[in-house]
Amino acid sequence: MSSTIPLVYNHAGQQIHRDNITGPLADWSQGQLISTERQSLLNAIKKSIGRQVCETKSEMKGKDANMTLEAVLDDFSVTRSNAEYPHDFLVMDKSSGNTVTRMYGLLSATSKEDLVRSYANIVLELYRLPVPHKIGSISPGSTPNALEVIPKLGKRSDLGAPRVFETLEQYLKYLFSVKRRAFTLTKHDAIGEKDDTGSVFSAQSTISELGIHIRKLLLSYDSPCLRRFVLMHDHLDETNILTDDHGRITSILGWGSHSIQPAILAAEYPSWLSYSGVNDPQFAPTSKWWIEGAEESARLRRLFEEIVKERDPEYHQALTQGSVIRAAVGWLMDIRDDPACSRMRGWTQKTFGPSSSKPPVLDDSQCHIS
User: Fold this and answer.
1) Bigger pLDDT: 197 or 45?
2) Residue 200 and residue 186: Cα distance in Å, rounded?
3) Same domain membership, residue 77 and residue 206
4) Which listed site, 4, 57, 152, 271, has its alpha carbon 20 to 30 Å from 11?
5) Structurally, how many domains does the chain consist of?
6) Are residues 128 and 254 in the same domain?
7) Same-domain check for residues 128 and 221
8) Residues 359 and 273 both lie in one domain
9) Residue where one domain finishes, among candidates 41, 67, 94
C-alpha cells in the first residue's frame, strides 16, 4: 500500500492535508550496518528474549505509537547513562498493522464498515468480562482469579484518581472537583490570564450550571444495566488501534490506560466518528480536525448502533441513553484552551437550554453530586 498523506476534515467540513500525519509505515526490515556496541546490545536482547531482533530506522522514531526498536534503543542509550533518571525497558514484538490515523484515509467504504464491525467485536467482548464492582484500574499484581482494583491510572495526573470509587455519583463528584480546581484565581494569576476574577467566576458558574443538569440527569439512570461495572480501554481511539489494509483490527495499544466504569460511561461510539461534546465543530478548538466527514460519520455511527443492538441490547441501551453524560464527562476532563469555560458553556446551553436562573458563582453545593 502506498504511503500517501491522508486527508483530514476541518471545522467547515473541508478536506485538508496535515503535515504531521504520514501514511502507513512499512513492516520491520533489516536496517543498515550498525556499530559494534549497538550490535552487542542487540545480541544481548536476542539472547535474553530468545528470538530474532532486527534494527530498523523510522523517520517517526518516538512519535510513532508503535515504536520501532531503533527508537527504543535510542531511549535506552540516553537513559542508561543517566543514573539520576533510571528507566526500565520492555522489548517486545512489533504489532502488525498501522494506526487508524495513518490508514483511515486509504480505506474503502466497505473497509471502513468492517473497521466499525471489528471495533464492535472488541468492545462487546470487553463489556461482558466479569470485573469487581468498583471504579478504578486493575492492579498489575492481580491474578485472573483475584482482580485487585486500584485508583484509576492516567497518563496525566488529572486523568487518574486518588482513590477507588464505589458509585457513579462519587466519581462524578471527583471530576467536578478537578474541573473546579483548574479554574481558580491562583491558577489564572500564575499563567497571566487577563481579567482573572471575571474569567474564574464565569468558569465556576458554568461548572455549577452543568452540575445542576447532571444531578437531575442521574435520577433517570435507574436501570441496573446502566450502572453495572465493565472494563474499558480509556483511550480506544485512532492512535491506539492498529488495522490492516481491509479495516480489520489487528492490535490494540496503550492498555496501561484502562479502567472499570459504569456501563453508561463505558459504552461508546468509535472515537474517530465523534462529532458531539468536545468534538462538536461548533465548540471544538480551532486546532481540532476529524479523519472522517460529518455525514459519513453519522452513517457509520448508525451502523454501529445496529450491530450492537442486535448483539447486545443492554450495550445499545447504555450507548444511546448515556450520550449526554459521556459528553459532560468529556468536558470535565478536557484541558484544551477554553478560557472561562466558554466552549463548555456553549455546549451546556445548547444541550440543556439557557439557564433560567444563574447559580451562585462559587457555591459548590450547586454542583454537588450525591
Assistant:
1) 197
2) 10
3) no
4) 4
5) 2
6) yes
7) yes
8) yes
9) 94
> pLDDT tens-digit profile of 209-221?
999 999 999 999 9
Give the tens place of pLDDT for each residue, 105-133. 999 999 999 999 999 999 999 999 999 99
Side chain identity at residue 134, one-letter code = K
Return the C-alpha cell found at 80.
542508561
CA dihedral 220→221→223→227, nearest 10 degrees, is -170
Nearest-angstrom CA–CA distance, 118 and 123: 9
CA distances from 161 to 44, 165, 175, 222, 237 (A): 39, 9, 9, 25, 21
Q: What's the helix, strand, coil split of the chain in %, to 5?
A: 45, 10, 45
Residue 301 inside a domain? The answer is: yes
Both 59 and 84 in one domain: the answer is yes
DSSP letters, 37-68, are HHHHHHHHHHHHHTS-------SSGGGSSS--
Q: Extract the C-alpha cell encoding 62.
A: 518516538
Helices and strands (H and E) in the chain: how many: 13, 9
Q: Which residues contact 248 (CB under 8 A, 6 or more apart)?
A: 114, 115, 118
Last residue of a domain, one of 94, 124, 143: 94
DSSP assignment of 154-177 equals -SSTTTS-SS-BSSHHHHHHHHHH
Residue 262: CATH number of its domain = 3.90.1200.10
Residue 89 shares a structural domain with residue 111: no
The packing angle between helices 323-332 and 196-218, to 10°, is 150
